[in-house]
Amino acid sequence: MSEPRYLPLVDTHAHVNLDDFAPDLPDLLNRSREGRFPPIKGRQIDDPILRPFVAGIVCPAVDLESSLRGIELAKEYDFIFAAVGFHPNHTALMQPEDWDACERLVLERDAAANNIVALGETGLDRYWDDAPFDLQRKYFLQTLELGLRAELPVIVHSRDANDDLMAALREFCADARPNSARGVIHSFSGTLDQAEELVEMGFYLGFGGFVTYTSKKFAELWDVARRVRTDRMLLETDSPFLTPHPLRGKLERNEPLTTAFVARRLAELRDASVAEIVAQTTENARRLFQLPELRQKPDQTER
Ligand SMILES: [Zn+2]
Prior knowledge:
Blueprint: E1 5-11, H1 25-34, E2 50-59, H2 64-76, E3 80-84, H3 96-107, E4 116-125, H4 133-150, E5 154-159, H5 162-175, E6 183-185, H6 192-201, E7 203-207, H7 209-212, H8 219-227, E8 233-235, H9 259-270, H10 274-289
Parallel strand pairs: 1-2, 2-3, 3-4, 4-5, 5-6, 6-7, 7-8
Bound molecules: zinc ion.
Zinc ion binds at residues 13, 15, 60, 121, 238.
């Protein structure tokens, strides 16, 4: 029998620093890097030819506490990489000294250790009414600015706010060096035109659960996924949220290994092989976040 084909995935957006994962995190992380899916209705998902496994996880923060927790995890696990920052919905809860603490973490980081690889997630959100929009916008622009100073990419969240996002980014790119912003629009949900303009500005697009959903309301997103430049697409889960089809409703919470299903969907849409999509998105993630060499084979830890 020939060797199985190993597929080293990078989940560029997994909140493994949140409490949802606290009860069984070591177990979940071991399973991820071994490429073992959780049993679904008592059955094990297994494909003897293609062996997807998680070679890297970028872990975004929502506040100072989760930033610190992410850094801790990045120090403990060599395949976890932390982002530091404030989710737009958390900006109203920030203490005055939180921003300064975040800035110090980033500017005084040991770049060679690869523990902090990005800022975020930051951005704009008009869906939840958790924080005044002006405050979200202020911290978003401040985070973009810090990204330039610290030479770190920025993980951007945008929910029901794509027009505002474009306006803010155009303004930022005009004030700063043109097209100098670097980062990913995570769980991208905009139009084809917006996708093109964002790529032009220098951004990558993150694809997760949404692109796998079968409802026609995602048709434009399928088009974006078909057409986006090969060197600008990234895989993500937004774990524990947004479980991809066909696992949606069958998993209690989403987890990094399900990026394999997102890769399968992108392969379908782009008329490529799953192995090609995984190789390309992993290379893209390594380029954007400047990740070190990653594992090429799943870990074989004891069961
Ligand atoms: Zn997120």
